[in-house]
Amino acid sequence: MTAPLLAIDAPSLYFRAFHGVPAKAAMAPNGTPVNAVRGFLDMVTTLVKGRRPDRLVCALDYDWRPAWRVALISTYKTHRLAPEGGEEVPDELAPQVDLLLEVLDAVGIVAYGVDGNEADDVLGTLAATQGPPVEVVSGDRDLFQLVDDERGVRLLYVGRGVAKLEDCDEAAVLAKYAVPASGYADFAALRGDPSDGLPGVAGVGEKTAARLIERYGSLDAIVAAVADPAADFAPGLRTKLEAAADYLAVAPKVVRVATDLKLPEHDLTLPAVPRDPDRLLALAEQWNLASPCRRLVDALAENAG
């Protein structure tokens, strides 16, 4: 069996690590919380041991709320805007992200983003361009759209944590949402997603959205049927879809992730030993990260063997 590329949604995991590991249980000697870093490193260790990848990359948000998406739907992620602008991030998390990137760099794990785009877009491009198999790791439901059995792309969905990840192929997506992975973006546009500020079509929930995709195949076909007086819709449904015409014209462009970004050129090979062991040791000692760093280094050596 060919070893996979593990493409990790870094923001998804470090937010989960921050909220999953109590700050008081993971502090540096100077009292600074390092819970997100410790939790993230342990998640990566679990993934390396469980998935045995030969390549690994952590995708970053270089723009968590791209202007081109906001121009299409003004409510996009507005609930996550800080009063002074920018993303609302807990005060104790923000400095940990920089520390995490330092540790990953010392280990030799590649982490990057692309200007003007979200981590989702980086992951979409990796899934479309990298040699299979590709396993995308995220707790973001939008990434179910990337699942593609033919290309060997799976989503390791960590909505309930890495220890309880759901290994999703096309059959799993169909069982979970009653739509194929190729129809997930259109389904999500119809249903909406409060976590992203997408209103969806008023009065159309998950079951109705799935039935529409199952019947018509795509959002374009649904919109065409709405315009056809002969098409049969449940009472009131045509009216709801007509009222949402402007939203439906742009929502899929917001929900669909990019697959054609120009990615930085890096060797994504997962190292067998740390790239800079002295720097990693210094960071581990300074920030009370010796245990998670040791577990990760041991997992890398075992993976290489």
Automatic annotation (TrEMBL):
One GO MF term: DNA binding
Function noted in UniProt: 5'-3' exonuclease acting preferentially on double-stranded DNA.
Keywords: DNA-binding, Exonuclease, Hydrolase, Nuclease
Protein name per Swiss-Prot or TrEMBL: 5'-3' exonuclease
SUPFAM superfamilies: 5' to 3' exonuclease, C-terminal subdomain, PIN domain-like
PANTHER family for the chain: 5'-3' EXONUCLEASE FAMILY PROTEIN, FLAP ENDONUCLEASE XNI
Species in which this protein is naturally found: Catellatospora methionotrophica
Record carries keyword Nuclease: yes
Residue ranges of domain 5'-3' exonuclease in the record: 3-271
Entry's Gene Ontology BP terms: DNA replication, Okazaki fragment processing
Entry annotated with the keyword Cytoplasm: no
